Amino acid sequence: MLPVLIRIGNFQLYSYGVMLFISFVLGIMIVERRAQRFGVEPKKITDLALWVLLAVVLGSRLFYVAFHWDEFRNDLVGIIRFWGNPPGLSGLMFYGGFLGAFIAGLVFVGLNRLPLLKMLDAVAPALVLGEGFTRIGCFLNGCCFGKPTACPLGMVFPAGSAAGAQFPNQTIHPTQLYSSLAGFVLFGVALLLERRKLKPGVLFGIILLLYSLFRFGIDFVRYYEDAANFWGNQAVALGLSLLGLGLIVVLSRRR
């Protein structure tokens, strides 16, 4: 693992932060290029990205606080004190960031009267590509790890990582790499699917359905400190998969 890429005096450049930055920049570049096909100004995408960035941070933090309320019951100031550790080690939850970005995107699109369904199709590949890079950051950071396993894909994490501290000298599922691979594969799937003449919004629905089903499955081998987090994530995954399926069915029937 390599949680810190560069260390100069008190300055530390965290691998998770670098991967998150790469995901964000690539996402903006991809969506800007794709959005031009639909007549959307590139500046609108930059403005949307700022909205989404803020919503991701707020949403992922609020989800974490909701699922770990006992940590903050007697320390309310701690709710906004989460940059002391590398992001992703603790204090943020993926689904909260996803839902925050989704809601912020809907509001922005509505206020600017942009074509909603076409915009969803434009961002779909960028979302899963970002997941691919971000989960590499999780792997280097040693967070978001799996349960002990005897399968050949299992790995032993260093004692200095969160995974190694929880399961010292034990082989566990590298669920971060599973998720990263899924993100890259779905990115390719999205590019292949859009060659077909799909109705607006259907591409987004397919990617949402496939990713949600993957998350539902991967959580069975991922480690959670308590059952509430596991079942909460499973409920969100099922809800999003149903939303994706609904979008596919309804939008495919449009004339």
Q: Which structural class fits the helix and strand makeup?
A: mainly alpha
Mean of pLDDT? 87
H/E series, N to C? Answer: EEHHHHEHEHHH
Strand content: 5-15%
Largest sheet: 2 strands, antiparallel
Q: Report the uncertain regions.
A: 84-89
The radius of gyration over CA amounts to 19 Å
- Estimate the helix proportion, in percent: 55-70%
State the distance separating the first and last CA atoms.
Answer: 51 Å
Number of beta strands = 4
Shape: globular
Q: What count of helical segments does DSSP give?
A: 8
Membrane topology: Multi-pass membrane protein
Function: Catalyzes the transfer of the diacylglyceryl group from phosphatidylglycerol to the sulfhydryl group of the N-terminal cysteine of a prolipoprotein, the first step in the formation of mature lipoproteins.
Binding site for a 1,2-diacyl-sn-glycero-3-phospho-(1'-sn-glycerol): 135
Transmembrane segments: 13-31, 51-69, 89-111, 201-218, 230-251
